[in-house]
Amino acid sequence: xxxxxxxxxxxxxxxxxRSTAFYRDALGLELVSTLPAQDNxxxxxxxxxxxxxxxHHDLAIIANATLPLPGWGQPSAxxxxxxxxxxxxxxxxxxxxxRLKQIGAWVEEIEQPMHLSVYTRDPDGLAIEIVWRxxxxxxxxEDLWRRPLxxxxxxxxxxxxxxxxSAAGEAA
Length: 172
Hints:
By secondary structure, the chain is of the alpha+beta class. 19% of the residues lie in helices and 27% in strands. It is globular and about 55 Å long. The relative contact order is 0.18.
């Protein structure tokens, strides 16, 4: 037996409608289903990546959060540090970064040997990383680093339209 991949993530949120708007409108996930509230269970909403997911849902939210999260980079209780979504091209990543800046949800953009990243926080402060995977041949496990993302340099190196990861048919 071996685990193959993460199938989905379920997040506790404070405001179901506000979080639905963020995941649907800011990140572009499709709202595919709702589990109505029951006697002992809060309402849940289920989202998928548009057109590319083989899962019933990739993300679900449930309105049962009661405590705020600490600020970016501040100590927190054990639990989720962040989760990541993948985009297919550097151009898509740059477009999403610009959209997040427009709505005030942008945190930072980082280059690492394994991927380029845009970081955001959802309405409850949960950290989300959106990545473009660098080509597998460029990965390293020995010399890891983080630095600010320069889209011009990255585009010159790989091209803004190079599809990698699941967008190029690589295994999830």
